[in-house]
């Protein structure tokens, strides 16, 4: 009973919220959307400080009458990312095209016949056991046929061109750098998600502090989204479950 009461209360709450939302929309007919006030984001109850990988503190030794510092690898400062916490721009330019077609056909037929002509002279006793007359030469007859035919085709054409800022999260013992970048953009009720992970070499980072996606080892590139339009393009959960469980 408690579960039923909880369900009823939840449905009533949703109905009330939906009614309030509808009333607000009716009240705002002909009005421009209100702009949010500028507030301190740290006062938001849902605010959480950002915690990201950072490099270990380095001790800098300055010499008198010298422009050289002990934390530099070259005389001029290198603007390229090379330490944990630095940012590198990943250039993604994927043009992928594939066209595959498979066709399979299988057919099998079997026919078996068995009889019992002589069995120590006892074959005639079958007429007394079975309700109808029996022909010993055709006691068993098996016939089976199987036919399977399948056709599949994949045609894909993808063109993705993006720029994404990634963070250096780890320096491997051989000097290679592990990067991770994630970007989310929400417009109304649609959200676009872009993510890249992988390992790069310091030598592949250009003077513009960029690296191409094809220079990323163990690359994991995700480009997708969430929202109402994407949900409409997917089958219902019940239909997906039915397709999985239905054996035929």
Overview of this structure, please?
This protein has 248 residues and is α+β, with helices and mostly antiparallel strands. It has 3 domains: 1-28; 87-99 and 161-245, no CATH class; 101-152, no CATH class. It contains 4 helices and 6 strands, in the order αβαβββββαα. The protein has a 6-stranded mixed β-sheet with strand order 5-1-2-3-4-6. 6% of the residues are buried.
Q: Low-confidence runs (pLDDT<50, min 5 residues)? A: none
Question: How does the helix and strand content classify structurally?
Answer: alpha+beta
Number of strands: 6
- List the domain count as a whole number: 3
Hey, roughly how much beta strand do the residues contain? 35-45%
Distance between the termini: 39 Å
How do the strands of the widest beta sheet line up side by side?
5-1-2-3-4-6
What is the makeup of the main sheet?
Answer: 6 strands, mixed
What characteristics describe this protein?
six-stranded mixed β-sheet, 3 domains, 6 strands, alpha+beta, 248 residues
Fold topology:
Elements: H1 2-27, E1 87-114, H2 126-129, E2 140-171, E3 177-187, E4 190-200, E5 210-212, E6 217-227, H3 228-232, H4 237-245
Parallel strand pairs: 1-5
Antiparallel strand pairs: 1-2, 2-3, 3-4, 4-6
Write a short abstract of this structure.
It contains 4 helices and 6 strands; from the N terminus they run αβαβββββαα. With 248 residues, the protein is an alpha+beta fold.
């Amino acid at each position: 009973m408690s579960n039923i009461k909880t369900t009823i209360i939840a449905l009533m709450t949703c109905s009330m919220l939906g009614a309030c939302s509808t009333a607000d929309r009716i009240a705002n007919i002909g009005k421009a959307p209100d702009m949010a006030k500028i507030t301190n984001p740290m006062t938001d109850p849902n605010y959480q400080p950002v915690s990201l990988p950072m490099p270990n503190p380095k001790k800098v030794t300055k010499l008198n009458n010298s422009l050289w510092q002990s934390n530099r690898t070259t005389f001029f400062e290198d603007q390229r990312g090379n330490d944990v916490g630095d940012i590198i721009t990943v250039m993604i330019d994927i043009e992928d095209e594939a066209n595959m077609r498979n066709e399979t056909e299988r057919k099998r037929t079997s026919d078996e016949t068995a009889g019992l002509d002589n069995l120590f002279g006892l074959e005639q006793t079958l007429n007394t056991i079975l309700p109808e007359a029996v022909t010993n030469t055709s006691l068993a007859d098996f016939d089976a046929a199987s036919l399977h035919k399948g056709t599949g085709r994949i045609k894909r054409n993808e063109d993705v061109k993006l720029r994404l800022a990634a963070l250096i999260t780890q320096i491997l013992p051989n000097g290679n750098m592990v990067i991770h970048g994630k970007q989310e953009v929400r417009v109304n009720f649609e959200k676009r998600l872009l993510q890249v992970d992988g390992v790069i070499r310091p030598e592949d980072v250009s003077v513009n502090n960029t690296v191409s996606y094809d220079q990323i080892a163990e690359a994991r590139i995700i480009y997708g989204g969430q929202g109402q339009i994407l949900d409409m393009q997917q089958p219902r959960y019940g239909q997906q479950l039915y397709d999985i469980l239905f054996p035929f």
